[in-house]
Batch of 3 targets.
Target 1
Amino acid sequence: MSAPRIGVAALGGTIAMTSQTGREVTPTLTADDLVAAVPRLGEIAEVTATTVATRPSASVTSLDLATVIEWAGARVAAGARGVVVTQGTDSIEETAYWLDLHWDHPEPLVVTGAMRPPATPGADGPANLLAAVLTASAQEARDRGVLVVLNDTVHTAVEVLKARSSHPDAFVSRPFGPLGFLEEEQLHLRAPGHRRPALPVATEGDPPSVALLETHLDDTGDVLDLVTRAGYDGVVIAGFGVGHVPERMVDAVQRALDAGVVVVMATRAGDGPTHEASYGYAGSEVDLLARGVIAAGWLHPRKARVLLAELLCHGAGVGEVREELARRSAVTG
């Protein structure tokens, strides 16, 4: 049997970073360089490598991701069994979810990177790229949407989070844990999930302005007022507990709503959902929902910001945003 055809696209990041001194690394390596550094990769898959960009992950844009979606679709149309994207790890939890919102093929799209640059002892890039190619080649990975593979662990795009700034085991899946693991170069996944309809990709115009604010002790809402006056289209508030803000912030939330800003409430806890009917005081989830705030449910604040921006990009109104957030943040169904 011939080796499966896999497309690999590079966006830069630590996996592609080099330095003359071993410190202060910058992205320089191409997709061909990354592929060439993986022993036995040619025995496992017939790889076509493409360099889309060479950026640190904090500088990746939605336009870069739109290019990736176009490239990935073309590779699948040309017969690829799956595709792999390499990039920096700092923004993977957002970029992978963006890609997942727009990926409408059954073939796997797998995102990977590295926590250690190539010249560092114990560099994890080659192992991660090998694991990503193995995952993209596997029948079990089909119809799963976008997956993130690092440290031989497979995460869904909607749940993956970078929980540590460094170390190879930096990534976790919350709230339900990883989708699976690779053992002896074999993919092992838990029960299949469900996919949502893909959103269209906007290739023209500037993205909508959507802020992400985390509330805190003594928050008066002054920063939210600045966002409102600046003309932002939407804001995701990472609130206390199951979706709360200080009482002194409630008026600022109301001013944002009155100005036409779409306000979404998530939890800053990092795990668990927002609630709908547990607390009834000023600034509670019941109070905020009654005012017109939209609950993020199980979505992490960073995922909710990506989704809100994409929905607003296509002219979604408050009602549609509410429906899509409820649908895409649900655990099942």
Note: Residues 62-77 form the longest helix (16 residues).
Target 2
Amino acid sequence: MNAQGTRHGARSWAFYDWANSAFATVVLAGFFPLMFQDFWSQGVSASIANLRLGWANAAASLLIIFIAPLAGSIADRLGAHKRLLLGFTALGVLATISLSAVGPGNWQLAAVLFVLASLGFLAGNIFYDALLVHVAPRAEWDALSGLGFGLGYLGGGLLYLGCVVAVLNPAWLGLASAADAVLLSFVVTGVWWAVFSLPLAVNVTEPVRQTAGESALAGGVKQLRETLKHIRQYREVWVFLLAYWLYIDALGTTIRMAVAYGRSLGFAQESLIVALLITQFVGFPAAIAMGWLGARIGARNGILLGIGVYLIICIWGAFIQAPWEFYAIAALVGLVQGGVQSLSRSYYAKLIPAHRAGEFFGFYNLLGKFAALIGPPLFGLFGVWFGDVRYSMLALILMFVAGAIVLMRVESQGATT
């Protein structure tokens, strides 16, 4: 019996989301931005630190753009999704743990390790998603994918909460400072990621294929060319994808840069940590509610509503003064973040030809994973150009507005029902 017939393999696949979401929550959105600004970028302005962080995020995304087509082709041809997933997981785990050994002021090494860890996380997810078709029958994909998402949300949130308690009370662990607790959290996150990847490594299998005909590189280039050609034949699709690139990049930038932004305004680490927890716990029920709303007012209208809320967030964020305002903004982000992402997926599904759903969604997912190429560095540059980190919000406003304008040019009526 292959992996499609094993419940144990399917559950083990879903459990990997529990494993790698720890990196997304604890490192990517939580502690790394704080440490990068306060610990590794000592002696420079907040604007310069944010710019460096923005370029690091963009570098990871740029590496994925170059790696993904070739790696995806090799995985398809050799049945190597699991092997490549575990390889990139090992890269992410080792880089994450290594962050704990970077000394104060060494922002260059911290940035390099962060890029490598992010590469392991982002690339690993490509192969993780692809394994879904091998671990369960088609009729179970939706439920199994939802199980993975739920486990990831729960696992990442619980580990982050535990790390927060340690950072706020470092003496409980015999540590001298909160910084020491954060450095320890990188080790714990790497170990968590590695240990909870073991069920997938042991229980998930995929058919082994043999390479034939053209090389993997030629096949990857051909596949990308074919996808682009088909997308150009559907105006509504490529117009939407342009809009999606703009607003999802801005949304992703709020996730990656919010903590660094708040720190640059002088808010205490404790306030920023609490804000991120608020976003985590508000986000899950809010995403469900926005899905319900989108079914009634139309997915595109729901996305535009979410973008409108993000514009309020950005404008308010430019003038924020008190910690309670940061908490309120965190709650607003939680209200719309998951909803915009989920409605974008359902809206896109209504635009594409059903017989090419896999091909078109492959391109859509790549865009989602590349959505840190423009926003984070632009966020940092605006703060440097205008001499005040608050002007960084202008970059997000421009991207959200541009995305909304392009989105309104999608004319398909089917997408609004």
Note: Residues 46-78 form the longest helix (33 residues).
Target 3
Amino acid sequence: MSFWKKLFGTGGAAEKPAAEPIEYKGFRITPQPMSDDGGYRICALIEGEVDGETKTHQLIRADVIRDAEECAAASVAKAKQMIDQVGAGVFRA
């Protein structure tokens, strides 16, 4: 039965509240570390306005960090780096 609980998320630990977005150069970065293989994978949601429309980009990196808070900080740092490098180009396919 635990397989089904893990698959559908029932009966497990309480869900962690979403992190607050961080404003950076006109973008909003929300760290979203993903649980992965004994640690957390770097992941963040980047949002911004382009031509009056809200655009989003899900940043996911291969890096896995053991501590969730460390991973959240690294996720924000990687998102900032991406914004610095490509700006609104982050939303292009």
Note: The chain has one domain: 18-91.
